[in-house]
Each structure stands twice: as structure tokens, then as C-alpha cells.
């Protein structure tokens, strides 16, 4: 009985020693780091998760070599990409690590007179409009501002085609005369808000109070509209097309008289007024 217990104990000790030896077994991991397009990344950092002091970086060809132990976790990182963790189970000489672009939530910013500022740190009265909200069928951008921007008053005086452009004021009319409307700046230059295609707008901001418009002096007394248009970007060619159509019909169509009945009524009206009939019976 004692011999069985002794043999079992020796067997357990041997298994424990073997597992410990395997866990402490060291490897040399080699491989390369790639981005989403398959290009190698030079200067990417890699280190052991619980031992940051042990690490290295990829060379000019995106290749790396690091000494690790079984069970270690290698963390790969590169600016603008999500971190990648790799658990070491066996030695590899051709390890391929592929990064994916990091999707970070940026702080909300607004366009002000001096440039771009974080919205939370701005104390001026500034309203912004999402460019997507302006990409709807309408005669002009000014027709869309009413009800979308606080403090803007719009008025459309005519529905005639070509004259159905609405006028707008920021917090009412502050000055009477030729310059009673707000100052509109398109990419820093004064322009006509109705001449812009809504699809070309990148950002749309309205400066309403004195602290926001002080840099523009008297010209900005009635508010300032800052519009930034889209610019070219690196990457694949992208083409966006949009079309819309409408069908209209009259809900109530009058019933017209026939020619003979119309002539009779006209003659009757002339006779009542003391005039002679216009149409004869022939």
C-alpha cells in the first residue's frame, strides 16, 4: 500500500515538473506586421502584456523578433490602429499580424471666427447644422434653415419659380438698410448662401451673439454664417449620385361647359346688360 502511494506521489511530482518546464519554455517569435491593405508597417511597437519593459519595434520592412515564454501575451500597437494581442502557444517564425483602423470618437467641435474650437469650451452663442440635414430637395439652403437653427427667422414672400428663395435673419432684424441680413462666409470669403449645393457643405455654423461675431466688427452685427465646403481626400475614387422626382395632380378639376352652352350663357349675360348677343344661332 505504501509503495502505491509513493509511486503515485512520484508520478504527480514528475507531471508537475514537466508542466512547469513547458510553461517556462522560451521561444523566439518572428514575423511581420501589416495594415488593412497588406502593406508592412515599420515602427510598430510590441511588448509583453504583463511585462512592458520587454518589447521591441518592427524594422523598416515591418519585421520583428522577440524572445518570449509559453503562455505570454504579445501586444502589438501602432498609432491610428487597434491594438492586437497574441497568445504564445508555440514557436513561430512566420507570424503575420494584421492591424485594423481604430474608430475613435472625437470631441465635438464647432467652427468659430478664429478657426475650430471644442464645443464644450465655447461660451459663445453658436449653432451648428448637420450637413446631412441640408441634403433634401428644396429651392435653396435658406428655405431649409427655418425650424432647424434656433434664433433664425425665415420668410418666403413668393412661390413663383425663380423667386421662391426665402430671406433669413439671425435673432431678428438688428439693422435697417441694405446690410440687414447676416454675413455669409464661404471658406473664409463672403458669398451667396443660395449659390451652394448642399452636397458640397462640410460644416455649417451660425454665430449669433456679440462675443462670437466681434472679430467681424459692424459687418457681423446681424450674425455670421460660416460655411466650409468639402475638399479632396486621399483614397479610392468615390462617386455619389442623387436624383429625385415628384408627381402632382389636382384634387378637384372643374367641369367645363360645351361650346354651345358657353355661347348661350355669354349671349344671355350680354342681353341682361343691355348689349347685343355676341354669338348668332347660325
UniProtKB/TrEMBL annotation:
GO molecular function: siderophore uptake transmembrane transporter activity
GO cellular component, one term: cell outer membrane
SUPFAM superfamilies for the chain: Carboxypeptidase regulatory domain-like (SSF49464), Porins (SSF56935)
Stretches assigned to the TonB-dependent receptor plug domain: 120-224
Pfam families documented for this protein: CarbopepD_reg_2 (PF13715), Plug (PF07715)
Biological process annotations from GO: siderophore transmembrane transport
Record key words, sorted: Receptor, Signal
The protein's name: TonB-dependent receptor SusC
Amino acid at each position: 500500500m505504501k509503495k502505491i502511494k509513493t509511486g503515485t506521489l512520484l508520478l504527480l511530482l514528475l507531471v508537475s515538473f514537466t508542466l512547469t518546464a513547458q510553461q517556462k519554455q522560451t521561444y523566439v517569435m518572428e514575423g511581420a506586421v501589416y495594415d488593412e491593405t497588406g502593406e508592412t508597417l515599420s515602427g510598430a511597437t510590441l511588448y509583453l502584456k504583463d511585462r512592458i519593459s520587454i518589447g521591441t519595434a518592427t524594422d523598416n520592412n515591418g519585421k520583428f523578433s522577440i524572445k518570449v515564454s509559453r503562455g505570454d501575451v504579445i501586444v502589438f500597437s501602432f498609432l491610428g490602429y487597434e491594438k492586437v494581442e497574441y497568445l504564445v502557444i508555440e514557436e513561430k517564425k512566420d507570424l503575420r499580424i494584421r492591424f485594423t483602423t481604430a474608430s475613435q470618437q472625437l470631441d465635438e467641435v464647432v467652427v468659430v471666427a478664429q478657426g475650430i474650437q471644442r464645443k464644450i469650451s465655447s461660451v459663445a452663442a453658436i449653432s451648428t447644422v448637420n450637413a446631412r440635414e441640408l441634403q433634401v430637395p428644396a429651392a435653396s439652403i435658406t428655405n431649409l434653415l427655418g425650424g432647424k437653427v434656433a434664433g433664425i427667422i425665415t420668410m418666403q414672400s413668393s412661390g413663383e419659380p425663380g423667386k421662391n428663395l426665402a430671406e433669413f435673419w439671425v435673432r431678428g432684424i438688428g439693422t435697417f438698410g441694405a446690410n440687414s441680413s447676416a454675413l455669409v462666409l464661404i471658406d473664409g470669403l463672403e458669398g451667396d448662401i443660395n449659390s451652394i449645393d448642399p452636397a458640397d457643405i462640410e460644416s455649417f455654423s451660425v454665430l449669433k451673439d456679440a462675443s462670437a461675431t466681434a472679430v467681424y466688427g459692424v459687418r457681423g452685427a446681424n450674425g455670421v454664417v460660416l460655411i466650409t465646403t468639402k475638399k479632396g481626400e486621399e483614397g479610392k475614387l468615390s462617386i455619389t449620385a442623387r436624383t429625385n422626382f415628384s408627381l402632382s395632380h389636382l384634387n378637384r378639376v372643374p367641369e367645363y361647359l360645351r361650346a354651345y352652352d358657353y355661347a348661350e350663357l355669354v349671349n344671355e349675360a350680354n342681353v341682361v346688360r343691355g348689349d347685343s348677343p355676341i354669338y348668332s344661332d347660325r
